[in-house]
Amino acid sequence: MYLNCHSYHSLRYGILSIDDLVSQASALGIKELVLTDINTVTGLYDFKKKCEEKGIRSIAGIEVRKDSRLLYICIAKEFKGLGEVNKMLTAYNCEGIELPQRPNLPSNFVIYPLNNIPEQLNENEFVGIQEDELNLLIRGEYKKLLSKMVILQPVTFSTKKEYNLHRILRAIDNNVLLSKLPEEEVCKKSEYFRDPQTVLNAFRQYPIIIENTKEMLNQSGFEFAFSTPRNRKHYTGSKADDLKLLTRLALAGLERRYGRSNAQAAKRIEKELKVIDELNFSGYFLITWDIIRYSNSMGFMHVGRGSGANSIVAYCLGITDICPIELDLYFERFLNLNRKSPPDFDIDWSWQERDIILDYIFNRYGKDYVAFCGTNVEFKYRSIIREVGKAFGLPKEELDELSKNPERVFRDELVQQVQKYGKLLEKFPNQRSMHSCGIIISEEPLTTFTALEMPPKGFPIVQWDMHVAEELGFEKFDILSQRGLGTINDTVKLIEEKRGVKVDIKNTTLSKDEGRCNEYLRQGKTIGCFYIESPAMRGLLRRLKCDNYKVLVAASSIIRPGVAQSGMMREYIFRHNNPDKFEYFHPVFEQQLGETYGVMVYQEDVIKIALHYGGLTAADGDILRRAMSGKGRSLSALQKVKDHFFASCREKGHPEELSREIYRQIESFAGYSFCKAHSASYAVESYQSLYLKVYYPLEFMVSAINNMGGFYRTEVYVHEAKMSGGNIMNPCVNRGEYETTIYGDEIYLGLMLLEKVESRLAKEIPEERRRNGDYKSLEDFIKRIPIGIETLQILIFIGAFRFTGIPKNELLLKARVLLGDFKPKRHFQPLFEEPVKEFKFPELKRNVFEDAFDEIEILSFPVSCTPFDLLQTKYRGTVMAKDLTDHHKKEVKMLAYLISRKHVPTKRGTMYFGTWVDVEGNYFDTAHFPDSLERYPFQGGGCYLLLGIVEVDFHFPTITITKMAKMPFIADPRYSHDEDKKYEAQQRIKEDVSMTFRAPYPQENEIGLPRKKMIN
């Protein structure tokens, strides 16, 4: 009876979740159900699983609409029928091919509404009729179609409140007021689950219609085997040839990585290849290798990370750059004979090059077989409240107030309605989008399983997310991008261009455990370096006196929230600095975790302890692993593991107190810890960037600026370049480029940093210069570049015409005389040069600091001087950052410029950690507790006078602030006669603020990690 059911995956139309839909059908004793979401199969596979749980036979269908008009309903006779509809919808979504008025879908039943019946019906075509349409059957044109009619009892909602919610969704979708919503945009009030017998009774005078409906249900089916591997199976065309090629490549890589006589590596390759072959994963490895091969041929850098780095075959193929033997990474963490799904390689490219890699994958493996995973973007309460409010007709002012105070109780009845329905829509799917990095490469055309859609990004997506993909048997390839690799890549290119030096940065032995790099690491001099530049990470490196690769690998993991929050980060720091002041509290910890002083640092450590101390099975270990990596996280499954753990510990005779402590540590890792291979991959990239920073600091910082930095704003990387001996120059139309560039030690800031200069124009200026030579004067520039007076003034203010030798004031007057109210248009080079008109301008004097204030206004930081030079006070502090370790427990007074602050919750309220530079340009850190912040809060970017007590924690000084005050700048000399604008510029100085919303880290006295044996 129920041939036309909608879930909320019929976006902005359906109201019921898959769970609700199936549960309501089950409660009515319905045994057959068809899901026909509008133009999508998003919920279909979940629907099948839920129906099987309830003993309902599920049938697959799709309701096809163009805009809001129902064309027909397709019901698959068998699974391949779904593919027919998917193919038709994909052509419409991705290629703009119109939906046919009458589709050719032989493996489907096609049901037309009364207002869209073709002249002649084929065998598989029917007409759907609803109860309120039965009175139309007295008409001759309908009466003759009785033998081709079926019952339509659509299901869209279940209660009056849900019907109202449906109307609100339709108003949102049509961007109209509820009162103006056309009736044809809304479903009928009868579209809910009615008792099956009631429906049959309504059609009792037309037994042929009832019979047709039952027969259609009997002849339809949805057979599907979940978890059957569906990724592309072979690279070469056969399993045997895949293995032969993989073996040859692995052995060639073995010689390249290890030489000809490394028996340990050769034995491990042999073992891994055997497992890979047994699991039929040779093709998966080869496809990944093929993508890397193309990347290398283009000269791109990549990082293969995640558990894939546990594989020596991946290392020898060049997919990863981590030696699993060196770090004792075991292959079984990545791939073992119990695993049915393919391995998951995570591969990073530069953000500038990722799209080129994606184009290659789509072209190489075929658009019919490759797509991104989809993802459902849900309604979020604060944004949906605006949408619902607009539908109800609330004015913008009220919507602003309501969005800012979502929990406030309003008396206005209309506002209460908006709040009520807004809450109901929270977590509803709103639109489909593209997964950030997950790609599927399928053995069969993807339209076998789903229709494809084309989001604005330009790559097709499937209609379900990564979790459904995994259930269906697809394992995604993660093709990621990051700015850190862009910085490394660009630095290497810049060094070759400017110095003629080729740096083989892919040779990881070049930048691993190198003397000067290790010294920088130990001192935390890592700003600009991937993953190790944040204040927290630099502080950790100093506390550990980290001076080698292996400690860096550990540091990359213990900085993660799970480790830090459990107290294990603090304990690791203590044990690293005091290896003779603790005992392993159980022999298993010494045997399994000796490298990390008995502290669980990696996911693998947790699994080792669960297995070797708790006696859990490998299957339980895998549940833990998946929970920790965020895959298939299930509280009920974790609870079972916990119960097994404690039962097993009691059987083994372990003390209850010790077992509880160990499980506390295990539990704290869930979802946050890295696998060791992941940390090692990050550490390699960190070292690569550090090597370039140490030996080529100016080129490295230029590249960091061009890749828009990392943790900090551009100003900080400009400061680093200056501290490394760079002479920072403002943008220049004759020497500068769109991006920041370097000549010797002179660094010219790029035109791209001028926010108010249009990107197109910023690129055209250097391109025109390359075509026709340097700009000779302001007049010459105006002739060659189509520019308006406002943009030209910005270039003058920033000093981009300083090559003329003419003062800014005179240039500005000249520009206004030459352009006036000129509107930019395309200029052409004249055939004959006309003589330049000479104007006599009055001599205008400029204050020495005017340039600095121009720079602050345009760039948000000064270039021609430091912020300290602009202060009214001449005081510069009594202690410098480099001497803080000598002042443990002493009070110091410092003058400093604010770089960043991080919000951290504590049990006593919000606190901040600040990062600053002193007048010598060196960094230091501060801690601001709630009581201090209440009296002495941050007041935006700028220079502050600080008073506090120095606390040296394992070689790392922090000042606990007791008082602070923001120091005023001198009056802006450009506005010496304007009281309102004299001090405006200081408000443009920025700071980096990061917010943390997590439970507070435990205090040292709360950690309670035993340092003594806890066994008899």
UniProtKB/TrEMBL annotation:
| Pfam families, A to Z | DNA_pol3_alpha, DNA_pol3_finger, HHH_6, PHP
What's a single GO BP term from this record?
A: DNA replication
Q: Which reaction does it catalyse?
A: DNA(n) + a 2'-deoxyribonucleoside 5'-triphosphate = DNA(n+1) + diphosphate
Q: Name one GO molecular function term.
A: DNA-directed DNA polymerase activity
Indicate yes or no for the key word Coiled coil. Answer: no
Q: Which residues form the Polymerase/histidinol phosphatase N-terminal domain?
A: 1-68
Please state the Enzyme Commission number of this protein.
2.7.7.7
> Keyword tRNA processing on this protein?
no
User: What SUPFAM superfamilies does this protein's entry cite?
Assistant: PHP domain-like
Give the UniProt keywords, A-Z. DNA replication, DNA-directed DNA polymerase, Nucleotidyltransferase, Transferase
> Which protein is depicted?
DNA-directed DNA polymerase
Q: What is the lineage of its organism?
A: Bacteria, Pseudomonadati, Bacteroidota, Flavobacteriia, Flavobacteriales
